[in-house]
Amino acid sequence: MPVAQAAPLCRSVAEHQVCVLKITRSAKYYWEYRAEVQIDDERRPMGRYNCRTREYVSRDGRHVADDIATQVICAFFKQ
Asked: Tell me, what DSSP letter sits at residue 61?
């Protein structure tokens, strides 16, 4: 039997198409999500989205405050 796959969650924000492709929630820090997103046609690798500070933390440790993908993830997956 084939494995079922969920369709990506897509939202339009400020004339950008933001799609959440994969997402997991941290068990220890429930306000953090690890997600792979696509903004317009640019795929972003797995990163950490902190809904308390509203920032995106990339794998190389770079912090981006009030990121558009963070807005979508935190608004849709509210605690």
From this structure: -
For the chain, give the percent of residues with pLDDT over 90. Answer: 54
Instruction: For 28-50, give one letter per residue: b (16+ CB within 10 A) or e.
Output: eeeebbebbbbbeeeebeebbbb
Asked if residues 74 and 54 have their Cβ atoms less than 8 Å apart, the reply is yes
The domain ranges of the chain are 9-76
Give the C-alpha separation, 69 to 18, whole Å: 6
Render pLDDT for 23-55 as a digit per residue (tens, 0 to 9).
Answer: 999 899 999 999 999 999 899 999 999 999 999
Distance between CA atoms of 53 and 66, rounded to whole angstroms?
A: 8
Please state, as a whole number, how many other Cβ atoms lie within 10 Å of the Cβ of residue 16: 13
